[in-house]
Amino acid sequence: MPTLTIDGKQIEVPAGTTIIQAADKLGITIPRYCYHPALPVSGNCRICMIEVEKQPKLQISCYTPVTEGMVVKTNSPKVLGVRKTILEFLLVNHPVDCPVCDQAGECKLQDYYMEHGQYDSRLSDVKVKKEKKAFSIGPTVMLDQERCILCTRCVRFTDNITKTHEFGVFNRGDHSQLDVYPGKQLDNSYSGNVVDICPVGALTDKDFRFKCRVWYLDKTKSVCPGCSMGCNITVEWDKMRPAQLKKARVMRLKPRHNQDVNDYWMCDKGRYKYRFIDENRIQHPQLNDDVILWDRAIDTVAQALKSLKSFNRTDRIGVLASAQLTNEDLFVIRKLFKETLKGAQVDFRVPQPPGDSDSFLIKADKNPNTAGALNILEPDADAAGIVQKAISGDIDLLYVFGHDLIALWDKKTVEQISRKAKLFVYQGSNINDTCNYAHLNLPSSVYAEKTGTFTNCQGRVQRIWPAFLPIGEAKGDWDILSLLSAKLGVPLGYQDSQEIFKDIAATLAPFSEMSYEKISDKGMLLKLL
Amino acid sequence: MGNMTEKRRLELEKYFDPKGSFASLRMAQMKRAWKQSNRRELNWLENTYIPTLMEGLWLTSKHFFYNLTFHVFHLFGLYKEIPAAVTYQYPEKPRPLALRLRTRHRLTKREDGSVRCVACMMCETICPARCIEITAAEHPDPNIEKYPFEFNIDLGKCVYCGFCVEACPEDAIRMDTNKLDIAEYTRQNMIYNKKRLMEG
């Protein structure tokens, strides 16, 4: 374990650590373009030069391993001078078209120029222009070779992480340029990540292109609901200009670093699956196509439940919960339908066809909270059985959480359920075909409007944070259910999700000793026997 | 509270002190009050209001005929050195404006007549009144790359600070149209779109 000093601060790190990693641990940021903690070191950008005492030349900190007693200076006049010179070299053929560049605002070249460079251009020659300006290199990414500083992060990403080898650097000297290999396209399922790792605006996202400037974005930590992997993400949304862009709030999703789940990456499916947050939402409670108030909607369900309970026919209640719901929502479902209305048939395992999967991040189970639902609901009924019973008229009240039954079964089945059931409640965030057949539609919020936790396929409980308020009159799922419970005369008394989670931790063994503070933004594993 | 009343009492004492710094102010106030409460009774002639009426008519007619005469003389090129009325004949003759005055915005054009703006949204970002709304789009020419599909300025909100002009990296927006008379019947019409802004 060598001990070294960086800018007067001492730190002890394992042998083999590079100086830049040791500095990161100390919280000292050394500028970097080509270095990325998840990629192999290439050491070609030279911006991370630092001064090591007793060594005549400056060293690149991303490739120099630490040694015992090393004294490193990251901000000496010599280092700053070199940084300035290197920035000058990097900007020799850079078009400096920041006004039209989507990266402006989160561009490291722009940032370090403002921080360290600030020179007047000494260039008398004309900048070398590439053949094409911006062009498409795949379904998701645009490439602008002029802006590229040839850090090769994207090349190393496709070589080492996805192993699809699309990128290469061609030609030499001033003419060297980044491109995809002839006849190839950047069309792997992780292509969006090259935009994240690109330190400049050479690779830009087609989906995000010109949609919004990055400084308008607010960021909220969340978890991707696309599959059971539960990749950590940041929801980036725009509150400054909601009138524009058809009132869309979410602009893009970005992966968030979590060593144990997704590292720095996320798949394209998850990255571009955010439009449902703003589009096609149920805005108001609806009873047979009439917009009604929440009070009446809750009353309608509560009366039906009450009468079934008073006749001791709670077995005629069918609940199709969903693994898209948070642990908190599911726990309130358990409280209401398995404790207050004991005997109700609750299940969430609707027969979904398995989706695509790979060995990296994409999982076949497309629900973010299957593990949580199994542990919280402990279902004894069978979803297909509940639907069969509803068709034959053995279910009086069918309560569906967000499932599109028409896609899962067929139109005829849902038509029959709609005819046979006395009350067919659909509680969900988005309009789908099933809504037209449900008697009562209750608008609920999507994951970006909720506080709660998801449990991924590893059994890791991870938190989600609300980015903004629910759209229209929508309410959180547990909120609706606790209103319902209060109407039935059994108030649950939860003020917020944290109280529910405290209750979960107190009642359920796998969740014991967990709390929001302990989970924080890295997650916590379930205790499975 | 006791201290407060003490303070107030001292203030009042200072105010009513006949040799204090407020004495002259108090004197003026008292004189005005005396004048208002001691008005002279009007005699019968004054009660008809005719003398004051004639006095007013005389003053108005004096200026009217003076200006009329000299404006007519000026038309024939006579007595130019004697000035007539100093009023600007506004709608016909606008007042001369200073060169640096910030007036209604315009969007400048390229040589081919297309909009110069590249929709970098610097003006939208800096605008303290948040009256600029830009929607960017992909330009067919990859060397221009980005252009404003929509560019709206709500002149009802604009405070004419000129930050947008200063922030613009492309000299695409200027406030030099010398147009000040912006009036509309609806608020919606106060929102100037790209076309109206490019007309200058």
Q: How far is it from the N-terminal to the C-terminal residue of chain A, by CA?
A: 37 Å
Overall pLDDT confidence of chain A: 92
What share of the residues of chain A lie within helices? Answer: 25-40%
In CATH terms, what is the fold-level topology of the domain at 106-198 in chain B?
Alpha-Beta Plaits
Low-confidence stretches of chain A: none
* Average pLDDT reading of chain B: 89
Query: Which two chains form the greatest contact, residue counts included?
Result: A-B, 20 and 19 residues
Beta-strand portion of chain B reads 5-15%
* Overall outline of chain A: elongated
Q: What is the second-level CATH architecture of the largest domain in chain A?
A: 3-Layer(aba) Sandwich
Tell me the number of strands of chain A: 23
Q: Helix share of residues of chain B? A: 25-40%
| Level-1 CATH class name of the largest domain in chain A | Alpha Beta
> Main beta sheet of chain A, described?
7 strands, mixed
Largest sheet of chain B: 3 strands, antiparallel
Alpha-beta content class of chain A: alpha+beta
Q: In what range is the share of β-strand residues of chain A?
A: 15-25%
